[in-house]
Amino acid sequence: MLKKYFILLLVSTTLLFAVKKENIEPFMVEKVNSVLSILKNKELKKEEKSSKIISIMDPVFDYTLMARLSLGKEWNSLSSEKQKEFSFLFTEVLKKSYLNKLDLYTDQKVKFLGTQEPKKNRLVVNTTLIGEKDNFDIDYKFYQKTEDEWKIYDINLVGVSIIQTYRQQFAGFLKDKSFDELLKNLDTKK
Amino acid sequence: MRKLVVLFLMLTSICFAQEIEKDDFSNEFSTKTESFDPLSGYNRSMTSFNHYVYLNIVAPTAKGYAKVVPEVARTGISNFIDNITFPIRFVNNLLQLKFAYAFEELGRFTINSTFGLAGLMDPATKMDLEKRDEDFGQTLAFYGIGEGFHIVLPFFGPSNLRDSIGLVADGYISPLTDMSSYGYKIPNNTEKTVAIQAIKFVNHSSLNQGKYEAFTKDAIDLYSLLKDAYNQRREKEIKE
């Protein structure tokens, strides 16, 4: 009896959090709009805004994958503890950087431009921030994690992939410094 | 026994899934640590110089300027500059055989120069005539010329051999330089050219306050970040 309930609970929670392919765009419309309304809310303090936004976006991001991709080949040579440590620090830095950038766009509108499927198991949601003078393209890149769950593994800002820029920087850093120095460096930025 | 089989199946499927995943992403991202960068020493110091100048001179100037000049006026100036540099975009669209875009640019120029009060306003965009940015660096790329090596220009920031040549070529056509003697040139000496470029730079920064700071704040390696972002962005612009 209890087992039945347990399974039911499991199934219902995964249904709640899993994003299916056909739902990705409406799902993102809803997420982005709620982020914008938090940003516009003048009654909230900065920290409250940050934690609310993070709680909205957290379930959609695959942080561990992002950490792995940003490190490239280096990832495989690490012990699992180091991988965990790096993932944790990278996630913190990424979140902070994301929030920093959001701060600039308070009064703007977001337009959804549609989706693309560059290949199997990938879906890109194209959006643009409408500014007074220029528009600012943001593309959310999803991959199929499991049968019916899609997650973000990268974001393009005006055509620039953030994972790619981290990857380039980490590779440059590790060319003449050690991995522990990289961890220390990330620790100062979180 | 059955449990063991299930366990085995689960393990293989997990391993297998991870294997696919890894292969899947490997060609989406690349690491170019050994790319040809003969000027890297100079480039790194120029990056620090530009960063310092931007944060300590340009950004505060732009902030003060934004307090004095209302946003409507600053947008107007920006529109005016965009409109008057129409020849660069027109010529480069033609050179890249993008005739529809060239025509669209011509339409924008006509409408904005007249109904848009000499380009201060941008009614063309509201009429769905889009700005089609093309420069000579992109034209060279269109004809298959590679980017050469990376060069960080003073004040202008990241560039490469091809785009620097492009910048000079576009300077010949641009009404905002004194680099040739076409009748439509506004400045007639170097000082005036520099002054106009400085106003353009400060005005642009005043409309984009905080963006550069937010982008570079969490940099692990500023030079790699700006270089890679520039390369990715150019790649996209060239494709369009």
Automatic annotation (TrEMBL), chain A:
Pfam families documented for this protein: MlaC (PF05494)
Designated name of the protein: Lipid asymmetry ABC transporter MlaABCDEF, periplasmic component MlaC
Superkingdom of the organism of origin: Bacteria
From TrEMBL, chain B:
GO biological process, one term: intermembrane phospholipid transfer
Leader peptide range in chain numbering: 1-17
Keywords, sorted A to Z: Lipoprotein, Signal
GO cellular component, one term: membrane
Keyword Transport: no
InterPro entries in alphabetical order: MlaA
Pfam families: MlaA
PANTHER family linked to this entry: INTERMEMBRANE PHOSPHOLIPID TRANSPORT SYSTEM LIPOPROTEIN MLAA, LIPOPROTEIN VACJ-RELATED
Family note: Belongs to the MlaA family.
Protein name: ABC transporter
